[in-house]
Design a protein that fits this description.
This protein is an all-alpha fold. The protein has one domain. It is 81% helix and 0% strand. It is built from 22 helices and no strands. Helix 2 crosses helix 3, helix 4 packs parallel to helix 14 and helix 11 crosses helix 21.
Length: 434
């Protein structure tokens, strides 16, 4: 059988398994082994079951994923997320829509010590949602700000998805982190502006809170020293070159663990942190192991080269190709887990991006941003369902209605980064990371 045809059949078989609710990592692994068996024989096919996954999980960079997830779990147990929210509210809470703005700030801050959009959404749903509803915020604005703000956890460094992208494409993780800083700031600012415009159009949607005196703001800032210390040590250590990524993650996890201990963490809470981290890490590792086998098969079939040649044959402009890829990622991001969506498509998409002459670091940021938008896009949008699961009183229709202004803002932000790649590439260039 023609290898390219077999590659296409294998790709279709993988999606069929996923539709049948086979775990994505298992679906990719099984498809890869069976297809390699048809291509070059069953002996080599069975051998890659051991060689490819062991090579994938033997990558020391993947240890960073577990450490950052552990840091986020301990930080939540320590109450650091609540500190961030109080600080953000003290600064902007007295404005109309101030609590929603504080929620965006809290999401960005928690994303900086968590690296996970789902964890950020779940945490802020517990902290911010009751506060907003108690102060008579409309459910649409309250839910929209949490669901949309939660996506910042995927973009703001340290980002677990960025780490995986860097490992799979062999790009510098530090350069990717630096590239995400300015787009992350743009996203946060645009979200805050969106809330400001929304509450001007609908004044009753987000009433202003009480003015916090300057002295009390300083007190709250002092009380938020744990979050500030973790952020400064981890981010400052990485970008100054004092720590490697792994060392920074280890130090951050250790600090968060100490704070959790002094916050009264019991053995039950400690075990829950370990269990949550192990569960999420195991899921990611299974996906990556399956992806390594699947990528081996895809490369062997010649499908990536064929896809590049096919796109060249269309004689379409780079913009049209990018638009097609973004629509594809928007759909995948709304249906699949973001890590799965990335590892499934990278073998095909990355060669196309490189062939068109785009910078792989810039594309990494754009890729993550598109999947961020997918996380709040119907028919699924994983952040919407996380929020719905955390707050049963919020219907899906209400949450989707609240997301619309932020979705439009996301399109503007994406257009800015697409039109001006310097927004992502300036810091890595200035810091000599590329």
């Amino acid at each position: 059988m023609d290898p390219i045809l077999l590659g296409a059949i294998g790709l279709g078989g993988m999606f069929l398994l996923i539709i049948l609710h086979v775990p994505i990592g298992i679906a990719m692994g099984v498809t890869g082994v069976v297809s390699v068996g048809f291509l070059i024989g069953w002996g080599p096919a069975l051998s890659i079951v051991g060689t490819e996954p062991s090579a994938a999980i033997g990558n020391e960079g993947l240890a960073v994923v577990a450490l950052f997830l552990l840091m986020g779990a301990f930080a939540t147990e320590a109450g650091v997320s609540a500190d961030m929210y109080r600080l953000a509210y003290a600064v902007v809470g007295h404005f109309r829509g101030g609590l929603a703005m504080a929620t965006i700030g809290g999401c960005a801050g928690f994303g900086a010590i968590c690296g996970s959009s789902i964890a950020t959404t779940a945490t802020m749903a517990k902290i911010a949602l009751p506060e907003m509803l108690e102060r008579n915020y409309q459910q649409t604005l309250a839910s929209g700000s949490i669901a949309a703000g939660g996506t910042l956890g995927m973009l703001v460094p340290p980002s677990v998805v960025m780490i995986i992208y860097g490992i799979l494409t062999e790009e510098s993780i530090i350069a990717l982190f630096a590239a995400a800083i300015v787009p992350g700031i743009i996203a946060t600012v645009l979200y805050v502006i969106t809330i400001g415009i929304y509450v001007r159009l609908f004044p009753e949607s987000g009433p202003a809170g009480d003015q916090v005196p300057w002295w009390d703001k300083l007190v709250i800032l002092k009380q938020s020293w744990r979050f500030l210390l973790i952020a400064v040590v981890v981010s400052g250590g990485i970008y100054s070159g004092i720590f490697t990524i792994t060392e920074a993650a280890s130090v951050g996890a250790s600090l968060a663990f100490i704070f959790a201990i002094f916050n009264g963490m019991k053995m039950k809470g400690f075990l829950e942190c370990l269990t949550t981290t192990a569960s999420n890490t195991g899921m990611i590792f299974v996906i990556i192991m399956g992806a390594s086998i699947f990528s081996y098969f895809i490369s062997l079939s010649g499908l990536p080269d064929a896809s590049v040649q096919f796109i060249k044959g269309l004689n379409a402009s780079n913009f049209v190709v990018l638009l097609m890829l973004m629509i594809m990622y928007l759909i995948l991001g709304s249906i699949f887990d973001t890590v799965a969506a990335m590892v499934i498509t990278l073998p095909f998409v990355f060669p196309v991006i490189i062939d068109m002459g785009y910078d792989p670091v810039w594309w990494g940021v754009v890729n993550v941003m598109i999947m961020e938008i997918g996380m709040i896009t119907p028919p699924i949008g994983i952040n919407v369902f996380v929020l719905n699961g955390m707050a049963k009183n919020l219907g899906l229709k209400t949450i989707y209605a609240g997301i619309i202004p932020f979705f439009m803002t996301d399109l503007i932000r994406l257009s800015i980064v697409l039109a001006f790649p310097v927004t992502a590439l300036w810091l890595p260039t200035v810091w000599n990371l590329m």
